Amino acid sequence: MRVDDIHQVFIVGAGTMGQQIALQCATHGLGAIVYDLSRDALDKASENISDYGARLVREARLTPDHLEAAWRRISFSSRLDDAATADLVSESVPEDPKLKAEVFARLNDICPPRTVFTTNTSTLVPSLFSESTGRPAQFAALHFHQYVWDANLVDIMPHPGTAQETIELLRAFARRIGQVPLVFRKESPKYVVNAMLGAINDVALRLVADGVASVEDVDRAWMIVMKTAVGPFGSLDVVGLDTVWHIIQANSAAAARAECDPRAKLIKDYVDKGWLGVKSGRGFYTYPDPAYARPDFLRGEA
User: Fold this and answer.
1) How far is CA 57 from CA 21, 46, 63, 68, 287, in A?
2) Is the pTM of this model over 0.85?
3) CATH classification (class only), 193-291
4) pLDDT by residue (tens digit) across 89-134?
5) Superfamily of chain region 3-183
6) Phi-psi category of 191—alpha, beta or left, where left has phi over 0 and alpha has psi -120 to 50?
7) Do strands 180-183 and 139-144 pair parallel, antiparallel, or not at all (unpaired)?
């Protein structure tokens, strides 16, 4: 398959990343089907994609006509059988290797032989479930970053059985949808950016969980010194605290000590309250007007 043969992308999972990947594909001329079992999740995805698109128009990064054309290329489905038309699959389900393996096994029975499979996993390596895809040579990690149109970086992580042709196809596909491809030489959990951010977030969580500093002061310190628009806790809200908790659980050692690890407990307390971050309107901050985005935050007045 050549990159020009990719016309339809099937996105498994209507969460934050699935929404952004769909919009990125559609604004670059590709059809995007967003799949989820939950109709509520699909309705929320439609609402969020609309908000994302409106933001890009306000920022003059898309014209209204361009956005309207992109919308016509996006559809929503609760039927996995709709993957039968896909040229490329992008999977963004929770970080559970067993679940991912089951999803890909089902997709292998549905999709035509030409379809390339990719996983957007943030912390797992593709070899954990490559055999379950039924087409390991046509499978690799294709990992996007928040927000897709701002980060403009996509990680391509092959496993030992990924065909070179698949790697080159994904490299070309990334460029086609406006992303800079970073091709890995070997598998490595958390990639590059997430590995570094993970270390920063771990320290930030420890500082708050141990009572050293507040959420706001940790973010404020980072934003002032590093000149960033958001701090570690604001970033975690964007990722989704339920996603962070899934990542903790996926790490068996972390899961085993979750009940006694104050960092894990801090996240779990928020998840138990339904405070999942931006997606739920509340996490470490309240949305859509988080304190860290206010002009007085960096002066210590918010």
Assistant:
1) 17, 17, 6, 11, 21
2) no
3) mainly alpha
4) 999 998 899 999 999 999 999 999 999 999 999 889 999 999 999 9
5) NAD(P)-binding Rossmann-like Domain (3.40.50.720)
6) left
7) unpaired
